[in-house]
Amino acid sequence: MTPDPQSSDRGALEIAERHERAASELIRETELQLYIDGVWVDSIGDARFDVRDPTTGIRLAMAQAGNAADIERAVTAAWRGYETWKTKSPAERQTILTEISDRVEARAEEFARLDSLDNGKPITEARGDIELVVDHFRYFAGAARTLEGKTVPVGRDQHVETIREPYGVVGQIIPWNFPLLMATWKLAPALAAGNAVVLKPAEETPLSLMEFVHEVGDLLPAGALNVVTGYGPEAGASLVEHPRVSKIAFTGSTEVGRGVMKGAANNLTDISLELGGKSPLIVFPDADVNRAVDVAIDAMFYNAGECCCAGTRLFVHDMLREQFVEEFAAAAEALVVGDPLLEKTDIGPKISATQVERTEQYIKLATEVGGQVVTGGGRPTDDRLGRGNFVLPTVIERAPHEARAAQEEIFGPVELVFGWNSYDRLIEQVNDVKFGLAAGIVTDDLTTARRAARDIEVGNVWVNQYNEFPAGQPFGGYKQSGIGRETARETIEAYTRTKTINFRVG
Ligand code: NAP
Ligand code: MG
Fold it and tell me: Is the CB of 175 under 6 A from ligand 1?
């Protein structure tokens, strides 16, 4: 059926109006400032950039492109803030972080809508992000009470004890795919451990973090939390290379992460990196096809494929393959692509037009080497979505595993399906990528699941499910997917250093 152009126009207008209404309700200030030393200030430079709505293209706000001089101010303020923050007892830090989580929880729906608007993620998924924000602040509030040193027996005439101390000032840089959640994964453990922070959000999605600072800023001493918006190569790189930043925590692409590591090397600044992935999902021959399809849909199309851990390489046993691909493609086609603010939407727009082009380029690369598009393959034809950065959920079969589309991170809703019949060959192929972030396994056989989980070179394995992130569970990568673990007990430890004190006895 040919869409009626008038009703398409009306549809596009309806989406635009809905988004303008949401923006005027949710965005406190359309001219954002930097947050340094407990106050909102203007950047020392004049550079500004637009924060856009990826669904409609409208400008939501204008942000300031912080520069090296702003980072300098923020780092100085953070050291002052640290002087106060470090005097708080673990119990006081726990109380403050708990209050932060309570305040976010009280306005959870607003934060979820703000992330949906700014990032384009479906509102139903954004709510899940904010639940995790609340859960992670609560978890690290408790963890603030758990940091302990030890005594080390070395003989009668010495007494050795260790204490755990915060780094002082930590620099944090985050991506745009889970705006407030990525900020939380970094802020909650760093603050819980007693550090002060300078954080640079992603250019594309500063809005929920800015509202978060408005909401909770008064709970922290001035300077304990500073937010400098800006471009990666300027604000980000100045933070990484700053000689008075004692630790850098970065989440983003492997390519930028490599540069961050080099920059941190100048001052031998300690570093943790959460980077990209090309994660496998393996369907074993005993799997229930319906369940495998559900897990695969979640693994691949959650957040429109803009997940570092997305299960983008799907290995289905040859016995199930034909039936699986048919049902999986049908389920992908049934996903509702559209306005992320609507409850029924499963797939919102990608973050930017550049990301759409990048995804299309990878689809093209896959088809050039023999890949066959089973469903999707590009932008939707629905004119109502013409102003947004939409890509249809795409399934590709028969591309060789060496193909760039199978080896590189696409960061869009594009699944590559492979068949398998020999376990040893499967594991070889599964591990034949430079990344090692996550993997999924679908089987009812525990022994098979355990064996495969051990054989796959990744930091995280989900069995019969995907994308589960309870606080307390360590998350991070092997190989080129990163260094260090987030969201767990070891994360708060990683925001501290060991100091050894050796007493002479007698
Ligand atoms: P990106 O381009 O690497 O950017 C990430 C952050 O780094 C942004 O804030 C960016 O600033 C900043 N940046 C850029 N160049 C920089 C430089 N030279 N020095 C310091 N900072 C710099 O990644 P993205 O496209 O935003 O996010 C997607 C990537 O993040 C994917 O690869 C994904 O896998 C990864 N990711 C990993 C995890 C994980 O936990 N492993 C979680 C989420 C995402 P601008 O805003 O100016 O670009
Ligand atoms: Mg945006």
Answer: yes
Which phi and psi angles does 188 have, rounded to 5°?
Answer: -60, -50
Whether residue 172 lies inside any domain: the answer is yes
Residues 259 and 291 in one domain: no
Would residue 3 count as lying in a domain? no
Instruction: Looking at the structure, tell me whether residues 363 and 445 fall in a common domain.
Output: yes
Residues 6+ apart with CB under 8 A from 378: 360, 363, 391, 392, 394
DSSP state of 285: T
Ligand 1: does its nearest atom lie under 6 Å from the Cβ of 349?
Answer: no
**Ligand nearest to the backbone CA of 185:** 1
Choosing from 234, 274, 306, 409, the catalytic residue is: 274
pLDDT at position 151 is 98
Ligand 1 proximity of 308 Cβ (cutoff 6 Å): yes
Under a CB-based contact definition with an 8 Å cutoff, are residues 188 and 140 in contact? yes
Shared domain for 351 and 439, answered yes or no, is yes
> For residue 465, what is the domain's CATH number?
3.40.309.10
Catalytic residue among 125, 307, 308, 415: 308
Alpha carbon 115 to its chain centroid, in Å, reads 13
In a shared domain, residues 353 and 310:
yes
Q: Give me the helix-helix angle, 108-119 and 123-143, nearest 10°.
A: 120
For residue 25, is it within any domain?
yes
The residues whose Cβ lies within 5 A of ligand 2, an ion, are 118, 204
Tokens of 91: 């119990």
Do 202 and 308 belong together in one domain?
no
Using the mean position of ligand 1's atoms as its centre, give its distance from the Cα of residue 461 in Å: 23
- Asked if residue 338 and residue 440 are part of one domain, the reply reads yes
Q: Whose CA is nearest to atom 31 of ligand 1?
A: 253
- Would you give the distance in Å from CA 413 to the centre of its chain? 16
Ligand nearest to the CA of 206: 2
10-residue stretch averages of pLDDT, the chain, 506 residues long: 62 95 98 98 98 98 98 99 98 98 99 98 98 98 98 96 98 98 98 98 98 98 98 98 98 98 98 98 98 98 98 98 98 98 98 98 98 98 94 98 98 98 98 98 98 98 98 98 98 98 95
Quote the pLDDT of residue 1: 39
Which residue range(s) make up the domain with 83? Answer: 12-275+484-498
Q: Quick one: 269 and 300 in the same domain?
A: no
pLDDT of residue 8: 72
Other residues' Cβ atoms within 10 Å of the Cβ of residue 169? 27
Q: Quote the number of domains for the chain.
A: 2
Q: Please tell me whether residues 32 and 177 are part of one structural domain.
A: yes
Please indicate whether residue 276, judged by its CB atom, sits closer than 6 Å to ligand 1.
yes
252: left (phi over 0), alpha (psi -120 to 50) or beta: left
Ligand 1 atom closest to residue 178's alpha carbon, by position in its atom list = 43
102 assigned to some structural domain: yes
Specify the pLDDT at position 6: 65
pTM above 0.85, yes or no: yes
First and final CA of the chain: distance in angstroms? Answer: 92
Report strand pairing: 151-152 vs 279-283.
unpaired
